[in-house]
Predict the structure.
Amino acid sequence: MATIYTETVLTVRHWTDTLFSFTATRDPGFRFLSGQFTMIGLQVNGRPLLRAYSMCNANHEEHLAFFSIKVADGPLTSILQKIQPGDALLVGAKPVGTLIQDNLLPGKTLYLLGTGTGLAPFASIIKDPDCYERYDHVVLAHGCREIAELGYGEQVVAEVLGDAFLGEIAQGKLLYYPTVTREAFRNTGRITTLLETGKLQSDLGLPPLDREHDRVMLCGSPGMLEDLNALLTGKGFMEGNHHEPGHFVIEKAFVEK
Ligand code: A2P
């Protein structure tokens, strides 16, 4: 069995100077759980150069989708940002990751909290009917510096709600909360502050955070994860993993160093 598939880039969309998304063909043998990541990349000087990327497509979808940062001097993303439809894309055959449903205890509301490209695993999760079967509400909070950076998340949410099958299931359950920190918008401020003050919950008509009924998935920068980890731990939430499900799970956004 192949350890790395060679796929073909299908579409590329640039959202800002620093963000782009793309889709690619998917080997029928490539299976994963919504929320997982794998290594993807390109042949560079005759060798595979791979980085961790969360799949943004649902596990039932025919094509792969990814959301990436562009780093000017990043070994991979400085090249990856120039890909075009028809180009080859390397996709590692061993998906992994902690942002999976079985790592969480049963609950009523699932909070998906992401900053920047930390949205990526949640794009996959909100396209999976499974999350709407498990929870009464699925909150997708996406924090960015500027409005333009919200574009990919807005598109994914519109796709979910506009889908003939998924839209019906997600309607009223999927609560989207985009927020920006560096310009005026309908929601502003860091996710941490919005959760701590309870503004996010009250804007959505939800009760204060409580480990009895709330479950949380986190994906973002190390600072964001640290702050939210402290906030949740302070409220008695326990971190879950593959051995023992908990009240919250963490994955860092895979920013290229
Ligand atoms: P801010 O503009 O106040 O730094 P970045 O692009 O740096 O990863 O930031 C993405 C978003 O995450 C920004 O809105 C940023 O807010 C926010 N952010 C940065 N650090 C934290 C943190 N420790 N907790 C919550 N949000 C954060």
Notes: The first helix runs from residue 77 to 80. Residues 78 and 96 are 25 Å apart (CA to CA).
